[in-house]
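Milestone 3.1: sequence recovery, worked example.
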C-alpha cells in the first residue's frame, strides 16, 4: 500500500489526522509506527484547539525528520528545512485554502454548538479524510522534489535509520 492510502487508512481506523500522516512515513524515517502514533496523538483537531490541521502537523514532523537539523551551527540545514516546510505549507494553503482546522472545516470544534454541526454533517468522515489525503500527496511531491535535488532514488530512505 502506498503512503498516501496508508495515511488515509490510519485515519479511517479512528486514529487522528496527525497520527495517520506521521505513522504512514514512520519506518522510513527510522521510527516504528507505534511510536509515531503515540507522538501524533495530541495533534489531531488542530492540537485539540482547531488550530493547524493535524494532517499538516503530521507532514511537518516528517519533513523535520527527513530534512531537519540538530546542530545549532547548521545554519544551512536550518534554512533548508524551513524553506521546505514553507513550500509545503504554501502548497497546502493553495490547494485547500488554509492550514487552520476550524477554517478548513468551517466550524470551530472547540465550541460545543459548532462541534455538534461538524458531527451532524459528518465532516470528520467526509472532509477530514480528504485533508489527510491532500497532506500526504503534497508531502509525496515535496519528498520527490528533494530526493531529485539530492540525486536520490525517489524511494530511497532519508538516511535516518
Amino acid at each position: 500500500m502506498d503512503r498516501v492510502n496508508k495515511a488515509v487508512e490510519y485515519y479511517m481506523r479512528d486514529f487522528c489526522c496527525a497520527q495517520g500522516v506521521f505513522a504512514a512515513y514512520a519506518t522510513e524515517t527510522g521510527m516504528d509506527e507505534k511510536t509515531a502514533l503515540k507522538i501524533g496523538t495530541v495533534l489531531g483537531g488542530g492540537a485539540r484547539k482547531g488550530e493547524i490541521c493535524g494532517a499538516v502537523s503530521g507532514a511537518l514532523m516528517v519533513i523535520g525528520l527527513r530534512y531537519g537539523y540538530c546542530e545549532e551551527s547548521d545554519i544551512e540545514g536550518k534554512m533548508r528545512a524551513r524553506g521546505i516546510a514553507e513550500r509545503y505549507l504554501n502548497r497546502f494553503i493553495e490547494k485547500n485554502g488554509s492550514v487552520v482546522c476550524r477554517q478548513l472545516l468551517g466550524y470551530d470544534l472547540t465550541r460545543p454548538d459548532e462541534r455538534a454541526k461538524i458531527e451532524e454533517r459528518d465532516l470528520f468522515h467526509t472532509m477530514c479524510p480528504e485533508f489527510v489525503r491532500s497532506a500526504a500527496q503534497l508531502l509525496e511531491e515535496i519528498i520527490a522534489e528533494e530526493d531529485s535535488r539530492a540525486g536520490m532514488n525517489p524511494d530511497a530512505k532519508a538516511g535516518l535509520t
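The chain has one domain: 3-145. The CA atoms of residues 77 and 83 lie 10 Å apart.
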